């Protein structure tokens, strides 16, 4: 792998990466850190013990390949009432623990800053939810790059909402409106917007701080690629007035062999506890026809009530297509009992396969039997599905996911909406239940083989080809990363020679 002309150890760039403590942010930031290490940067990832366990096997493999990368673990603070080892936000995080985890994380800022001072990096890459790192980097006189989760499209749309406020003074939450000032026209309803756009809340303050730190950063890093949303990459630079680099699709760039793909985002201990390993689902998929199986997964942060699980189960059972359904943790009780009985039925008929908890998504998506994906429109799954050349049934739930749906359905035309109408908080069920009939209609349109379905498949295959070219030598993301590393090297050299007073 090209290392962009790295010289001796003294000239090697030294970087610190600080990922946020939720899987949807942790895994991509670690992947980006690994990509930098692939290209000759000395990388240290700072995190806490339970979060390190999620990705340490990948770091160990990279280190054994001769890459200069390691994990620096900082002990997670003990907070009264917070169980040992509960150090991240995910679908299993009890609501009453969220504030305790947030408080513990806030007390780590001082330790993180001290690690920065001790390690003396040439630059810092931190998650967007650590806005204080822009000041920490300024104190050290080094660049801070911000990792921005989600799509350029979503961030441009949210900026437009903040500036033009087209969602105010509507007759109802279900009334459609256009979001102005963007390269494409598309409509949304107020019910699909995050709560902070309807009334100020804690997230309003958090996102204001994030945006301020974003504008003060040396630049931003996204996990997208130019062919996917290049018009919005350019629009983002204009509205933010900052530099930005697109370095995706990151998952396929850094996870290039089966061992990487099999354990990405999953600790060794958890993998052993699963018991089934790869053999069960892999053998099942091998028995299926090409592009005949639907992959159903709603990410690491989602919770569904029993009533919604029932609708999903019956829709899958009645749709006439084979499926793999990744079922997140369900507590004992009515919901678990129902899903376990459902699993027995679809196993007996050989029409479905359930994976409980974590799934080796990269390996599943690249299997030729997979024909389409039902997704919550989280950016990780979206990009990985597009990279694999798979069209999507879109079922947004929270965060920026309703914006991502508009990109997939209205702009790229590679997705079919399930009909979700209400945004909800990540750790709440919400009161909207999508009916089995609507789920079935979306699946039928995408898997039915009609003209519209075939056209979507052609478009997503073209994007898949573009994704693969983007990370090859001379591709858009490869050039973007190369330019960024060369720029950071130049800054370091000027600083060493005493010709640089500031990196702003």
UniProtKB/TrEMBL annotation:
ATP-binding listed as a keyword: no
Keywords on record: Glycosyltransferase, Transferase
Keyword hit for Lipoprotein: no
InterPro entries membership: UDP_glucos_trans (IPR002213), UDP_glycos_trans_CS (IPR035595)
EC nos: 2.4.1.-
Gene3D superfamilies found in the cross-reference section: Glycogen Phosphorylase B
SUPFAM superfamilies: UDP-Glycosyltransferase/glycogen phosphorylase
One GO MF term attached to the UniProt entry: UDP-glucosyltransferase activity
Enzyme class: transferase
Pfam name, any one: UDPGT
Similarity comment: Belongs to the UDP-glycosyltransferase family.
Protein name according to UniProt: Glycosyltransferase
Origin species: Pueraria montana var. lobata (Kudzu vine)
Organism lineage: Eukaryota, Viridiplantae, Streptophyta, Embryophyta, Tracheophyta
